[in-house]
Queue: 4 jobs
Job 1
Amino acid sequence: MSEITAAESGAPLAVRLRPSSVHQLLGQQHLLQPGSPLVRLIDGEAKHITSVLLYGPPGSGKTTLAKMIAHSDSREFVELSAVSSGVAQVREVLNEAQERLNVEGRETVLFIDEVHRFSKAQQDALLPGVENRWVTLVAATTENPSFSINSPLLSRSIVLTLRSIPDADIATLIDRALTDPRGLSGELTIEREARDALVRLAAGDARRALTYLEAAAGASESEITTATLNKAVDRVIQNYDRGGDNHYDVASAFIKSIRGSDVDAAMHYLARALESGEDPRFIARRMMISASEDIGLADPQALGIAVAAAQAVAMIGMPEARIILAEAVAYLATAPKSNAAYLAIDAAIADVRAGNAGPVPAHLRDPNSGALRDRAESSKRDSNSYIYPHDLETAVAKQQYLPDNLVGKEYYQPSTHGYESRIKTALEQIRNLLRGK
């Protein structure tokens, strides 16, 4: 293990334990395959790559990877914050990098954190340095580069997408921090329940895991317990296992509360899941299913709102995603309910699986396929030929659509709830027209 420098001795645990080599990295294995752009950059072999955008959630290792790229092959590392740096500072860094390259022959890695916060003018100021390769730009962002980065800069970059750190790797990181001389040096242990809770709280964020661990260590004498962890992070640790029964129990209660139109209970289980470190994208996916299964055409807008919420959650992430989820939950829980479409497709599938799928009626078949191709003209004059509904005032023609063995079958039975009550009335008229009544 490397020794702790004087500068590092008072640094946060997350800084002290920052990996110095690829072998120490946890997570992001999809980017670390031999010969990949990232590995070649770290090894100093990718001279032609002039700009890299590291896109991923907080605590996924963007800064760590940037420093690995910089420290390989004795490159100079310069860091700018998009929050506090202006155009003048960007130009100053580029001028110094150009001079360093010309005089010393040494490359400069310019790392910009939260680059999505840079204005258009600030991003444009980077272009000369990137185009002329005065710097190797490594920029980090938690927002989709397609929306947050100017097209000229994006076109000169490769985008590497980082993922949240898997729970197993977060657990390994916690164990490493407890024993590593740069960390807690074996002075403390952690009980199993507290360790599992810390993994859940981290929610794939390595920095958060180490920050919470350090806070809990400061409140513990020899062992970190759930109680000391609760005090350290100022929140109650929920008994919630993302892979176990409690996870499914809360998810089930959440969906059943929406189905039952109890908005308050639905909010409770939403909060319970989020506070326990549940992936908000999982919650959003369950809500999309609920919008179709439990609300359906009683409120046709429900699915659109659920899909919009899922897209927004994926783009924004926590903690703001909680607001989006809450809005969608309130809408779904208070919307009128119908499972008629859900029952209809299951009933139709049951018939198909039972073999009740007769030949498609001749007038519905493609006239350009098989034997019908030769009879295309004659079938137009046939009394049983297809009737084009738009030619009729009602736009509904009396003709058979189902196979012969299923004529008269009614899979969809709309409810009288919400918008579906209007569909019920209209459908009765449509079915009468189809049958010539």
Note: Residues 1-7, 377-383 have pLDDT under 50 and may be disordered.
Job 2
Amino acid sequence: MKFHENVFVSFLLLIVLLAGCFGDSGSSGGSSLDTTPPTVSSTMSPTADLGTGMAINGNISAAFNEKMNPATITTSTFTLMQGAALIPCAVSYSGLIASLNPAADLAPGTVYTATITTGAKDLAGNSMAADKTWSITTGAAADNTAPTVSYTSPVNAAIGVAVNSNISATFSEWMDPATITTSTFTLKQGVVPFLCDATYAGTVATLNPISDLTPGTTYTATVSAAVRDLAGNTMAANKSWSFTTGAAAAKGPAPVDLGTAGNFVILSKAGISTVPNSALTGDIGVSPISAGFITGFSLTLDASTTYSTSGQLNGKAYAADYSPPTPSNLTTAVSNMETAYTDAAGRTQPTATELGSGNISGLTIPPGLYKWGTGVVIASDVTLSGGPNDIWIFQISNGLTIAAGAKVILTGGALPKNIFWQAYGTVTLNAGAHIEGIVLTQTGITLATGASANGRLLAQTAVTLDQSIVTQPSP
């Protein structure tokens, strides 16, 4: 009888364990299933060498917001049409990016339609909620221009690099993701390879070392000339750069990679205006709009017609209607800005949520990831205390407001290049206010009279200045 009782008890325990595994996912302790449909976060294609339209020898790519099931990315679920005619293409998938490679050059000056159907599924088996369709118009020429690496992180000859850093290379244009691998993007200490994972998103390739680097050691990163852009062009030569690690790991989350958006002190999709005289150190840019949306600067167009200058600007002003290569460079920078915003907004496992109930006035904040479901107010000085490699990311679901005269202060060697203010709403600095760090906003940025920033202002709408001082951070 005892034996039967033990079997019965064991059977009940098994039922309880199974219930915990398969019970309501919304209950405490239950597992959470992924039921969210995947989406296409961006589309891309190479620009013709003449600067307008898609290159006739180019591929068409789409980036998803999560990893997909490669078996569902096929010639049936990802297609290219010219009117009612199906264009024969090869389909590939790598990382987060699916690509169409037409079997022959496309016709110049022609509209094509790309479609990804709901047959495309993520790794959890979720289909897209609806087909994704977009149109592409070809230019008159092919893309025969070799891609280049336009920005690296760390920069060449950097010292004191955190031992837990990632290494990235930002390209001058969209690349074929299938060519970004651990064979074409490498890290070495002397002649000894350091094992890393390689990923690619937007125009940025990233190496993630599988373990911390050795302190006080020089490493060399290399992007091989074998990497190709979406038109099949390889780089003219290998790109190599070196850096030396510091003595300690960085505290806080991994930094946000700005790509070529990091070449601008102000970058906007809707305009940059000033009430003179402001003082800006670094380049400014607007895209996809024209130079007419940079107002109050009394711009003087350079003879090259690729940029303008201003007495208020220690740098250059770029706009989408200037001569090539400015338009394509700005398209890449804006895409990198959007990718950086999405990256910062999507970071998980915050150090704290709702710190100060949205009012962080007077606080001293160590490195970390901080998240608010509301706006954030700084009514009196706030201090960010940490070392030169430490990282802060502030995720703000609404706006950021800094009161008149209030300041963000850095101590302990903290650097503005390592501070990221991601805000969905408007970022407002009232008269005489000061901020340190990179501002990434879905909407606009306003600096009232005498307000200042030591960092970068990267806005998906407009940036408004009033006798303001904005200085780009040191590399």
Note: Confidence is low (pLDDT under 50) at residues 1-31.
Job 3
Amino acid sequence: MKNKLNLIVTLITVSIFLFTTIGYAAYGARVGVTGNVYVKGNGEIAITSVVLDSYSNLSNPTTPTFTKDSITFDLNFNVASNSNLDDDYYAVYDITLSNTTFFDYEFASAVFTPSVETINNQNMTVTYDVSGVEIGEVIPKLTTKTFTLTINMYPKTPGNYNVGGESNVDVEQEEVEPTGSLLASIPKNSQVSLRNGAVRDKVTVTVINSYDIAKGFSFSINNSNFKLVDSNGNALGSLTVPANTTQTYDVYFEKNGNIAFATDYQTANLIFNKNDGNLSLGSVKILVDKDTTLLDDEAPIISDVQATFVADNGKVNVTWSATDVNNITEFIVDVCNSSNECTSHNTGSSSRNYQATGLSNGTYYFKVYGIDSKGNNGKTQATGCDTTAGYCSKSTSSTYTWVFSVTYNLDGNVTKASGPDTVVINDSFTATFTLGNNRQYNQVTVTMGGNTLTSGSGGYTWNANQNRMTINSVTGNIVVTITTSSTSNCGI
């Protein structure tokens, strides 16, 4: 008597797309851009071989039938009445999966749970074992993986069994978030023409979407004199490029209102706006009709340059007037000495004043030039400079003194103990003196700026006991004259 096991097993693979990167340089040779693009490869992961490797007590040792995603087993085991029930009853199969895609797959699970029914109260058991592959093991792109499926049958009694069973072995893969790029380009040296009454003109943009989902985007420009529209003049809003495609889009330029131009062309950067950031596609040259009435090639006109002394060491305030048909952006002030040696200073401002600092005593005049928003520069256009109005105008020459000298005229019986030889304007002055033996002060005279000062408030102070002279605020050159007499004479 024979015991027979008929077992059907189905092997199913679950495929999930992955993505990989190829160099974009070769692909870019066709579309004229550079960067990276992500593409989805061809191929599949499939069962390509099922081989019966070994068996015991199997009466039909044949290769099972299979497709790319399933295997059907029909196993016949002989259990004769005189058989030893401890004998081995098994079949071992080598199963090969071939990954012909450009993606890696992960072996997620292998489950083999047959449902066994017999007419003899299930007088046998069936087990299985999968080896040669681990959960989570990667099957790399363009490779094969062979693993082993062992089916064991354990009879409990001799007899005639008609056993059927079906089970699945799953190879699964966790889905990976797709990656890709959204790129765009315009032809080199792109330009549009809005001359001779043309209302709008276009630039063709190539957009590449290597994601496997559609992507949205928009365009903008950095020149407010123009706007982007479609072929009918409607505002150009958001656009969508399908998944894994290369598309071209016509972007039309149109004047933003009734604008006149002083030049025959303008430029604008075309911006590609997308979720992961904006991309400048380059500059577009926009040809326009030039309005000659707006042409300005003259620098600002400067007049009424005035230089005012500041009672602070080394400072002079310079003011002036200026006119121009365009906005004046800044001025250049030349500080010139009596030898006509000049030092230039950019004000960096449209304010019509400047304070010169760090000057020493001397004679100075100041020249002023203007720069307008068109870049017209008076210093490059002026052929001379006078006190009259022009691209350059200057102040009259003036002599400025901020540091004053101190002169001591002392007779032979008095000497200076301490005191400076120069004093900065508005600083205080103090000097002390030493009187000779048997001498007394006869006369003390102080002049400042050629004017004789009186002792007391508003002039100078004199402390005969301490031999000290003080001037609170110096405004001119100082001359101190002191004479003495013998103590037998009446002093001051």
Note: Residues 4-171 form one domain.
Job 4
Amino acid sequence: MILYLTYNDPPSGVYWSQVTDAVAHMGRLGDQRVRLLAFVSGRGFFATRRAIHQHAPSAWVIPMVPTMQRWRWNIILLALICVWSRPSGIMARGVFATWLGQRMRQWGLTRKVCFDARGAYAAEWEEYRLIDDDHIIGQFRPLEHAAVHDSDIRLAVSDALVQHWSDRYGWSGNEVVVIPCTLGSDHPIGTAEHGTERSTGIVLVYSGSTAGWQSFALLERTLTPLLEERPEVRVLFLSRTDPNNAGLQARFPGRVEVRWAPANEVAGILNGCDLGLLLREDSITNRVASPTKFAEYLAAGLPVLISPHLGDFSHTVRQHDLGWVIGADGSIPVLEPTDPAKAARMRAYAHQNLTKRAFDPAYRRILKVLA
């Protein structure tokens, strides 16, 4: 058996797409059983366990030792589970889970460890201070260094992330696979007939929360001249109302709409728009990132308006003509409504390149190492 280990990852759409879907997909590819082991917060534990079991019925969901400062204490819980289950390998999501997995290998309780890296962990905590605690933030560089150097194989979400490991930590191995954030199993690939009827003009859509979002100033600087100079442009925020999007809505009444929708309705709404917005400020975190929204926009037939240094995706947009990349000076090319032929090409690209099935050789390589 192979364990897929997560630590303190709350259930969300990202978790279903990147964790439970990936576990199920790998379980179908090899002879080894792949089981999710999730250490979760004790707060709301039973609700969290129910939510995870809805997506992964066989998952082991364990309350973690309280407070993040004591995260290393979870090594005892993990050791007991490994003594009982004897996994051949552990695929660990993030630097905390990888450290725990590497201790199991050191103690002879598993043979191999895969570091499943979703981004540049130390850079993200240093740049955005996800918790305002210098002691915790200071742990990330040595933890990430060990995760990169001491794992048996690594999964990176972008080639840019692999280059970051080389630049910051001096890593130069070849035991790595690159799998970007792909579509969830329940996310439909749109069709010309599916979804909302397209409106007149050009509808730009941003899907996701903007509350407390560090890049909203960039989004506002980009959208304001478009809305001022081109009356046919409208913007839809698929999110809850917050001070950021409400302020833009007040400046452009009737041109900016904020609408929350259940997850199962989002794909159909996207299909009625013209262009997906994927704008991030220039930081190390964003230069190595792989936003799930990229695949979701393309699956709905939407070209993407993207920042110039967003993971591998900015280059992908240029290379495959999947939308527009904002200029280094913030300039925007002339935008056009998305015609049916272009929408079909976006959907085809998502289907061929941004599903988990498209990365079966990479997943099989991981499974071979961990078996």
Note: The two ends are 8 Å apart (CA to CA).
